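Go through this one:
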Amino acid sequence: MSEFTVGESDFLLDGRPVRLLSGALHYFRVHEGHWRHRLAMLRAMGLNCVETYVPWNWHWPVPGGYRDVRALGRFLDAAGEAGLWAIVRPGPYICAEWENGGLPPWVTGEPGTRVRTRDERYLSRVRHWFTHLMHEIVPRQIDRGGPVVLVQVENEYGSYGSDSGHLEHLAGLLRARGITVPLFTSDGPEDHMLTGGSLPGVLATVNFGSHAREAFATLRRHRREGPLMCMEFWCGWFDHWGGEQVVRDAGEAAGVLREILECGASVNLYMAHGGTSFGGWAGANRGGGLHEGPLEPDVTSYDYDAPVDEYGRPTEKFWRFREVLAGCHDGPLPALPPSPARLGRPAQVHLDGWSSLGDVLETLGGEEATAPLPPTFEELGVTRGLVRYEVDVPGPRQPYPLSLRGLRDLAVVYVDGERAGVLTEEEPRLKEPVGGPARVELWVESLGRVNYGPRFGEAKGITGGILHERQYLHGVRARGLDLDAFRGGVAGVPYGALPEGGAAGLYRGTVPVGGAGDARLELPGWTRGFVWVNGFSLGRYWSVGPQRSLYVPGPVLREGENEVWVLELEEADPGGRAPRLLPV
């Protein structure tokens, strides 16, 4: 048993000054079969600590049931066995470029609830969640023989709000539920953020990607005592669909790391290993300086241009950081662990069946609802996935423009069974007018809920209404297809022959594997959708890039035949090739 405390200028372990050299690694973004390898990579880079968020919505996606909360405990045990301390950031809000910033949509979408405030309805949900979650953290604190040395209160609250009473309540809740190690907050190094997001008596840390001395000087204006720590050194960055891949020069990033250490500070690399937002859990941002602009959905890969890449390989940044971090150790750093197995040889997916989106919805979808105006995803209980809205245009009437108010995020439209176009927030009106009578189907997809900024928590679906000219069309029928519905398999879905023209729908196939190991899946000619391999969801693919393939963790594959499902939501190029597995 040891005691980890916050001194006047240092972290103290049993009274002796220590420096935290930490790296972010999210257990929920790494296949459990690779945890130990990735933790060993952090040790080999020269780190002595690992940091992770905890996603509330991943563990409690719908009311009434938790999902593998013990995964956090298993990860912390693995960190301790790897010889690493651990920092836990339980939120409940985490940002992390994660769907809805980690909060369940059934909480953010509950009428009357004001999240990230002292609203009692919200806090009652948090108390219930923390009661379960603390069973995984409390017994693994360092003063009980575990690796956990720090626990965060909320996350970057100063960039969102100024309700210090909310932070005080969360800190008190953590203490009441058994957290005895030091608590901390983290925010950007700006006066309004540190004013709104810090608490008296709680360690304040700062997040930045450059100008370390200026950042710590700002922190010192607010806190004259306590150890300096950059809780998020942004050594890379994330990518958006339709944007450019972000890359940071390894030498320049290593120079900033050296500057942080020269300030006598502790550091947490964000990210040390980013991993992958499997299962369609990637979040989204709003563009513009005030985060109020167009939606910018995050890609599936969370490689983050990190020192350990998405496949677990060391990059140039890894070696540059290792050189800098070696100066903080008396002896040689640990050697790199053996690399995980890689796919033995390329293999092509053989597609042998197809089911229309309508048939998939009929088999796996939720209950149909009818309402005067379109219900949102939250009202239908859809966490991630899509909703089919149906409405009748009465007639006879002449053709008028058909448009959607409050569309979030993308709709593929069919009129009387014929595809009529794709609508977005920026282009919510069909190019060709629609006459009546007619039946309109709108397959609306969420591209990821906002995880940061003032529009965090906004609803998905058609949030305003369906307009024909200026007239609302009422009597909307809606039915959701949640991605979690595929967790139980697709055996009940009716399959037929492959369609001509690459129609939207669920494609079934198999791929032979000889030499199972880490691989990537390419989908040339496919537009946008989701992929499962042996029931494991790889996440979203999208032809707009910049991501061009999906990571397939080796533990997902097996020798011989493997099952593949591709849910194409728009259309596949009939001249395109079948999906194929390639070694990483």
